[in-house]
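Q: Could you fold this chain for me?
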Amino acid sequence: MTKEEKHLWYDYFKLLDITVHRQYVIEDYVADFYIPCANIVVELDGSQHYEPSMVLKDAVRTERMERYGLSVVRFPNNAIKYKFREVCEYLNELIAKHELPR
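A: Sure. Below is the predicted structure, expressed as structure tokens.
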């Protein structure tokens, strides 16, 4: 896991009272994080994800995951570094909005 993934995992996801999987396999892809109760995949993107070839690959990856009814949310690593609280608040809102009944 990258520094940013570890930060999000240990300082946010591990504190939630829901199941969150890290490095979760979906088809040929490994999602950074998967929140099954809300059908959300969270991807953290380093600078390489903004190169033209990676933008296309990420679009295909997102489309394939969405075929399973998943919502894919992407954050640049800088958001984790510099706007961690805002990222967590946004994820809290998404989870509350999309969380399926238990």
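A (continued): DSSP finds four helices and four strands in the chain.
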